[in-house]
Superoxide dismutase [Cu-Zn]
Amino acid sequence: MAVWRGFECLFIFVSLFALCCGQWGWRLPPGYACVERPVQAICRLRPNPTLMSSEYRDIQGIVIFTQRITCFGHYSLQVKINIAGLPANGTWDYHGIHVHESGDMSRGCESMGPHYNPYGTAHGSPRDPESRRHVGDFGNVVKDPFGNIQGALFDNIASLVGRTSILRRGVVLHEMQDDLGRGINRESLRTGNAGRRLACCVIEPL
Ligand SMILES: *[C@@H]1O[C@H](CO)[C@@H](O)[C@H](O)[C@H]1NC(C)=O
Ligand SMILES: [Cu+2]
Ligand SMILES: [Zn+2]
């Protein structure tokens, strides 16, 4: 009986510890209850005003971020992308899309800075490990022949919570395909040669 009581106590102790202190160094933002809940954010894409070419002036879009948070940490970030108004020129085209460092749109998409890169790593693919990509590297989305982009992706590195949160930073849609760090020049490991910034927005909590 005494032995069984011991195990029971240990079990209860371990359960309580897991419930209250299970975040293992990851601190819950203030006001967050220790229950699973979704956190959401939204970004409303607008055409880059500093871009001179008229073919990209009608871009409109929404990016919705959803992430489930528990006291043990967070689940991967779901990113839903819905964009219209790109050239309806009959071709399928890849366009790089990233989270950039700053939510500053005072000079259009140019003031949003480089890819969000809190760990000082090289540019890469969203499927690369944390040490070989930027936090902001979402890779490419595909534009259909009618000028629409519809997609959803999951990311295990970018997050809406914690010290390296992407909240209030920028989303930038590019003119060219992101080479995911596999290009032949130095720029490949900085920007993926994704070219000009067509549209952008600030990630706002929802
Ligand atoms: C079609 O539009 C895309 C931009 O989405 C552009 O990159 C591509 O060069 C255009 N293709 C043609 C054939 O004009
Ligand atoms: Cu970018
Ligand atoms: Zn990058």
